[in-house]
Amino acid sequence: MATVTTLLVIAVALAGAVLFTRLSRAEITAQFESSMQSQAKNLGRNAAYGVFVESGDVVRELATNLLEHEDVVRVVIRNAQGKEIFSKQDKPELTRSGDVTAEVLYESALSDEFAASMSPDERAHTRTPQRIGEVVVTYSRDRLDKQMRVAQMRVWELSAIAALIASVVAIWLAQRMVQPLAVLNRATTRVAGGDLDARVSEDWDREIAALARSFNAMTDALRTSRKELADSYGELARKDRLATLGQFTAVIAHELKNPLGVILASAQIIANPRRSPEQKEKATQFIIEEVRRLNADLTGFLNFARPKSPEIKPVDLGELAERTVSVLRLSSGSSDGLRAPSGEGIAIQPGSPEPASAPNVAVNVTVTPGTPLAAADRDQVHQVLLNLVLNAMQAISGPGGKGTRVDVIVRPDGNSRVALEVVDDGPGMPEDVRAHAFEPFFTTKKRGSGLGLAVVDQVIRAHGGTLELHSKPGEGTRFTLLFPSTASAATSATMRS
After folding, report:
1. What is the pLDDT, as a whole number, of residue 420?
2. Which of 6, 214, 359, 435 lies at a 20 to 30 A Cα distance from 186?
3. What is the topology classification, in CATH, of domain 1-115+131-195?
4. Helices (H) and strands (E) in the chain, counts
5. Are 480 and 434 in contact (CB under 8 A)?
6. Residue 416, by phi and psi: left (phi above 0), alpha (psi -120 to 50) or beta?
7. Distant-in-sequence, close-in-space partners of 433: CB < 8 Å, separation ≥ 6
8. CB 166 within 8 A of CB 9
9. What is the structure's pLDDT at 354?
10. CA 95/CA 154 separation, integer angstroms
């Protein structure tokens, strides 16, 4: 701003100097030429008698006096017929010169007696001045030009001095205005970056000082508000953690209560000597089944509370989907339920249906040729897929379910990602259920922890992927899991490095 102000002041000063010089030159030149014209007219009036009698000696002294003027170069006096009565040049021709011409007029004098005998018109005509010659005065402009150059130089010097003084004053005033604004701007940038301890000095002129006080008051208020907000968030987070812990505890207690009741009743049957061996053997099987169910439930709770970080490797999702469906088909007649063969990763959602409970549901796998490998944890994706397929089978075989198939689709997504979809033709989800489907502990089942889809969402997020749900009542449900491909994962790793 100071630079712009300085340039503006200098431009104004230069423009003023140019304008003043041009106006002054025109005015001085006009005055000089008017002076020369007056000198010529005076010589013409004084030399009238000499021209009338055509005597050079009479006009010599008058012309010589005019030639003493330093700017007059030559004087020529002629009669009416153009004959030179006097001509003299006592200075050499200079660079620039000019001529002025004045008429020599003669007015006859009449006696009073003669004038009285004439009519007014005759007297006016008789006393009209008669042109009897002319005076030509040649003058030099050199001295005038020299004086003009000196005057112009003085004007430029004064303009430069004025511009310098004005620039210094302008810079000083600009600094007085800009410096506090620059300080405020830097402080505002710090506040925008989150530093609410930024303050500015209030030792300025009245208006700037008021602005500084307002800024400091604003940062104080923001700092106080942020502390209050942080305290409020902390309190809300603590209450939310306590509420989640209470809900978590209630779910665990509910999920443990029924199996423990079955185990207690079975143990009492075994301990009763009056029970038959067949009853004791059946009670023993109940205990084994409920213990396995408790183990699956507790594994699911622990994996949700302490999720395992995925071990990212290239994974062929098509081959994995085929293997997962094969496990479902082989396990369809097992009374132990479905679990991942490795025994690691996330457990199947507690309360998942037995495969035998949906004997008419066909599970098909479709893999698009050329699908790239996904960057994923094989065991975690395997168990996520198991969970989604079992949920789909349960939805189809449950109340209102009239579907017959579950499709597992593996395809490229077109954005350096690989899509894994689980689609069923079951009853679908209403809006209120779909909106809370991924919330922990939310379930519409009579038995279940409500952690199945929450764990699926947790795993997909840990992979850097996305999980999409599309479902409408009567139109079935589609889960779309998008994983980074190995090419995009390698690019991201290189960029992070």
Report:
1. 93
2. 6
3. Beta-Lactamase (3.30.450)
4. 13, 11
5. no
6. left
7. 444
8. yes
9. 42
10. 23
CA–CA separation, 437 and 431 (whole Å): 10
CB 384 within 8 A of CB 481: yes
User: Which 3 state secondary structure label does DSSP give 32?
Assistant: helix
319 torsion bin: left (phi>0), alpha (psi -120 to 50), beta (else): alpha
Residues 6+ apart with CB under 8 A from 336: 289, 292
Start-to-end CA distance of the chain, whole Å, equals: 43
Q: CB neighbours of 95 closer than 8 A, spacing ≥ 6?
A: 141, 142, 145
State the Cα–Cα distance between residues 255 and 11, nearest whole angstrom.
88
Residue 49 host element (H or E): helix 48-52
Given a cut of 50, the residues of the chain with pLDDT beneath it are: 110-111, 114-115, 333-357, 489-497
C-beta contacts of 282-286 below 8 A and 24+ residues apart: 286/262
Query: For residue 471, what are the contacts with CB-CB under 8 A and spacing of at least 6?
Result: 428, 429, 434, 477, 478
CATH no. of 311-496: 3.30.565.10
Query: 84-117 burial, b for 16+ CB within 10 Å, e for fewer?
Result: ebbeeeeeeeeeeeeebebbbbeeeeeeeeeeee
pTM passes above 0.90: no
SS3 472: coil
> Could you tell me the two tokens for 232?
């409020």
Token pair, residue 430, equals 């209403």
Distance CA 315, CA 382 (A): 11
Cα 136 from chain centroid (whole Å): 78
Please count the other Cβ atoms lying within 10 Å of the Cβ belonging to residue 434.
16
Amino acid at 362: A
Alpha-carbon gap, residue 380 to 309, rounded angstroms: 10
Distance, CA of 139 to CA of 160 (rounded, Å): 34
> Which tens digit of pLDDT belongs to each residue from 405-446?
899 999 998 778 999 999 998 888 888 887 777 777 667 666
User: Domain residue spans in the chain?
Assistant: 1-115+131-195, 198-306, 311-496
322's tokens: 């085929």
How far is it, in rounded angstroms, from Cα 466 to Cα 460? 6
Per the structure block, which two tokens stand in for 364? 């098909």
Tokens standing for 59?
Answer: 């006009």
Dist. CA 473–CA 428, nearest whole Å: 4
Is the distance from CB of 294 to CB of 332 less than 8 angstroms? no
Residue in this structure with the two tokens 């040649």, named with its chain if needed: 138
**In sequence order, what are the residues at sequence separation of 6 or more whose Cβ sits closer than 8 angstroms to the Cβ of residue 409?**
365, 366, 367, 368, 419, 420, 421, 422, 423
Report the pLDDT value the prediction gives residue 338, as an integer from 0 to 100. Answer: 35
Strand order in the sheet with 417-424: 362-367, 405-412, 417-424, 477-484, 466-471
